Structures are given as C-alpha cells and as structure tokens.
Amino acid sequence: MSTTVKLAIGSLLIGCAVLGLKALAWWLTGSVALLSDALESTVNLATAFAALVAIQVAARPADQNHPYGHHKAEYFSAVLEGVMIIVAAMFILREAFDGLMAPRALDAPVTGLVINGVATAVNGVWAFVLVRQGQRLKSPALVADGKHLWTDVVTSVGVVVGVLAAVATGWWILDPIMAALVAVNILWSGWKVVSQSLSGLMDEAVPEETLARIREIIASEAGGAVEAHDLRTRLAGSATFVEFHLVVPAEMSVYEAHEICDHVEAAIGRAVPECRVTIHVEPEHKSKHSGIVVLD
User: Disulfide: which of 3, 157, 199, 279 matches 204 by Cβ 3.0-4.6 Å?
Assistant: First the structure.
C-alpha cells in the first residue's frame, strides 16, 4: 500500500472521529454555529472518500484506453472537494439564517467548546500533514483534502470566537452571525480549490522555475545537437510531461541521435521526478534558429 493511499485512509478515520466530536458538541449546546461546524465536517468524510478513490485510480498504470496513464483522476477529486466545500457553506448560511430569525441561549457552552477545541486541534495537525505530504508526493487530491480540512479549522476557530462572545455578552444572535461570516470564508476557499484543480485539467504548464531548469538541462546535456525548439510541458497529477524538437546535424547517425536523446531524458528525469519526456529528432535544415541553443 502506497504512502498516498495510507494518508487518504487516515483522512477517513480522522474525519469520522472529528465528526463525532463536533456532533457531540452541538448536541450538548444547541449552538447553530457548532451545528454548522458539524455539517462542514460531514463534507470532510465525503471528500476524503473521493480522494481515496481518485488516488487509487490515478495510481493505475497506463493501458490501451489510457496510454498516458490515469493521473488526472486526482484533479476530478479535487474539483469535487471544492464543490463540496461550497455546498457546505450554503448549508451553514441556511442554518445561520434560521438562527438569526430565532436566536436562543446555549446549553453547556463550556463543555461544547472544549470538545470542539479538541476536534479542531486534530484537524489542524492533520491538515498540515496532508498538505506537506501531498506536495511532496505531488498529489493534488491530498493537497486539496488538506486545504479543505484547513477551512474546517478556520470555521471552528470562528465558531469558538462567536460562541465565546455570545456567552460573555448574552447576545445570542452573535452565534448565527459568526456562522454566517465563516460560511463566506468557506465559499472563497472552495472557489480557490476548484479553480486550481481546473488549471490541472486544462493541461497547465509547469511552474516557470521548473521550465527554466528544463531549458538549462537541454542546453547543457544535449551536446552534439544544434538546438531545441517547440518545448511544451504539462502537469497531470504527480506526472510531468515534456515534449520538444531536437535538431541534430544532417550527417549524424540514428544511433548517435538516439544516444543524445537518452542522455537528455535521463538528466531531465533526475531533476523532475515522474517526468515523461518525448523528443522529436529533426535534421539541421529544420532548424528555426530560435528556442534553446545547445552548448558545446
């Protein structure tokens, strides 16, 4: 079982525990804000499950119907998570509206806040782990899941502030007001997750610093060639695809050109993990006198 799958399963287990704690906190207090927090946690479970499925699909090797692999499956999961975050925010806004129309005093607020605080601490630590490990493993699904959990942490902090203010002042309307304010923040977070995932589905190029590194490698490692042009890159989950045309002297043998390509591919692979390189070799008269000049 891969590390990515283990982390996804861990999200499911932790999501169940956190949901149970938050549901208990709401049951003890009757707080609209705590209910909203629990509702948001139900989405954590759904998105964690979606991330697990997507990661397993993305890990499948290339086949006849998917010759480039299944890497983009993780982006679909990340989009779903963003949508689910937005749905959770809408639920929270509805509950907040009902609370504004009929504010009520809370039962056992201190106990509820302590329980909610424990759940928030667990979520905060796990969100940090998911984002860090997701970036290391190049897993958009894990990163999106971690960011989603972080919005839950922000939600919980806002809820605590609102409930504490309501208890201290006796203004029970502060409870639903805080829930509504946090829902707006969740909406914004959900939109960011969706937009970032859509960039991956649209074959977004690698970051500028990675592209510059690839250019440097081609220029320094393609000794014997003339130039390289039409360099294109794209990201697909944990995989990076690199394509370019390599111009070689007309008198160069196929064997020599192939050796240069192998050397360049290996160098790029060492610098960019899980990189798939495609090189189209062209004779010298195809030179465009632009692009990447190969250094002698």
Answer: 199
Q: What is the DSSP letter of 1?
A: -
CATH topology (fold) of 3-201:
Alpha-lytic protease prodomain-like (1.20.1510)
Q: Which CATH architecture describes the domain 208-293?
A: 2-Layer Sandwich (3.30)
3-201 and 208-293: identical CATH topology: no
What string of pLDDT tens digits covers the 296 residues of the chain?
Answer: 678 778 878 888 888 898 899 889 989 888 878 877 787 777 777 667 766 766 677 667 777 887 777 666 767 766 776 777 778 778 778 878 888 888 877 877 889 889 988 999 998 999 999 889 888 887 776 787 788 788 778 878 877 888 888 888 888 888 888 878 877 877 877 777 677 677 667 778 888 999 999 999 999 999 999 999 999 998 876 688 999 999 999 899 999 999 999 999 999 999 998 889 999 999 988 888 777 888 76
How much is the pTM? 0.58
Residue spans per domain, the chain: 3-201, 208-293
Residue 115, C-beta contacts closer than 8 angstroms, at least 6 positions apart:
21, 22, 24, 25, 28
Question: What gap in Å lies between CA 152 and CA 159, rounded to an integer?
Answer: 10
